[in-house]
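anyone seen this seq b4? input:
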Amino acid sequence: MLRAVALTCSLKPSPAESSTELLAQQVLDALAAHDVEGESVRVVDHDVKPGVDADMGDGDEWPRLRERVMAADILVFATPTWMGHMSSVAQRVLERLDAEISETDDAGRPALADKVAVIAVVGNEDGAHAIIADAFQGLADVGYTIPSQGSVYWNGEAMQRTDYKDLAETPEKVATTTQTVARHAAHLAALLSARPYPAP
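predicted toks r here
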């Protein structure tokens, strides 16, 4: 069975409600329909040190999160929009993943090359497209494969206080896009699991 992990990069520690976590969970639920087992991790609940190494020492909790990332076939990278950008937590995750550029498997392939990444973004302001572009660039750089139509986002009305989690129901466009993201991600992950990239 394929596995997925959602790194939810909300700025709100648990148990506060999080729109970002809600959308990430909806992606995981959609993946479950394609026989993908998933879990969600709220990164801000862990002491992830700044840096670009796999282990920054001194109580750094990234190594434990990294184990879950490395064990997953699919990464769901979920972030809110703040001031038009991804959250600082999301940026830190990308910086910590940078260490994987130099990591290879036993065949000499990039350690993340046979893994798939998708993105979920929420916010009450513009910026989702720019965030998705920036995040996909970083995730591709460290080795992830990006599926066709591999992102879903919700932008609320600018300068209003309604959050995604406060909506009475999921907008149809978000729901159908989430299904597409999951379908394409599961398909690609299954292909890569069966036929990994060739070794150098």
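The first strand starts at residue 2 and ends at 8. The CA atoms of residues 154 and 171 lie 9 Å apart. kinda curious what u guys think
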